[in-house]
Design a protein that fits this description.
The longest helix is centred in the N-terminal third of the chain and has 27 residues. About 75% of the residues lie in helices and about 0% in strands. The protein has eight helices and no strands. With about 210 residues, it is mainly α.
Length: about 210
């Protein structure tokens, strides 16, 4: 789905945004993620083994919220004939603004829930009919794709086809680094910067998504 510079740029920007929020969420939740559900699933298994029921319930809540967000994103994409990316990003923006406001008013749990929901929703931005989608909030698939396409390049295939997938990974790492630094200075108030970035991305896509 990274078949154009525009799509690659948008995917990398959204992956960086997800990394930024995941860096914040990881520190705030003490080792849980707001977008990387594979890591949370492993943590859930460990918590269940150790009979740490409260931690397991928290992790299950995050996973369920993420899945509901992904379903909501799919519904938005499938229900809209045009401007589906704009509508999806607008919804994500409102969720992040709402999360930042929730923390401001002293509701950190609600804030985290809104962020997790937004991360699930974001993955539908490149969804096609039939359910196929490009994962933007996790990059294991992108690394596998980069490795496979690098192998193809070494055997005479397209020379640089692996690069967009590697850029997606790099964007998430950069975003998580910045997010962690922001959290150390601002706590969950750092979500305001993510909301501002989402506003900018929504405006850019709205102009092009005519």
């Amino acid at each position: 789905m990274l078949d154009s510079r525009r799509n690659t740029a948008l995917a990398c920007a959204l992956s960086a945004l997800a990394g930024y929020l995941d860096g914040i969420g990881y520190l705030h939740l003490g080792g849980l993620f707001v977008s990387f559900m594979s890591g949370n699933s492993t943590r859930l298994g460990v918590d269940l083994t150790e009979a740490n029921w409260f931690a397991a319930a928290q992790t299950i809540g995050i996973i369920v919220t993420f899945v509901i967000g992904a379903a909501a994103g799919s519904l938005i994409v499938l229900a809209r004939g045009g401007r589906r990316q704009t509508w999806l990003l607008l919804t994500e923006t409102l969720l992040l603004v709402g999360s930042a406001l929730a923390y401001t008013f002293g509701w950190p749990t609600v804030a985290v829930g809104g962020i997790v929901f937004a991360m699930g929703l974001e993955n539908a931005i490149f969804q096609i009919r039939g359910g196929g989608s490009l994962g933007l909030t996790y990059v294991t698939g992108a690394l596998v794709k980069a490795g496979q396409l690098l192998g193809t390049a070494l055997t005479g295939g397209p020379r640089w086809a692996w690069l967009p997938s590697l850029l997606l990974w790099a964007a998430l790492v950069l975003g998580s680094t910045v997010g962690a630094l922001a959290y150390l200075h601002l706590n969950l108030s750092a979500v305001w910067f993510a909301a501002g970035a989402a506003v900018a991305l929504t405006a850019i896509v709205a102009v092009r998504d005519k």
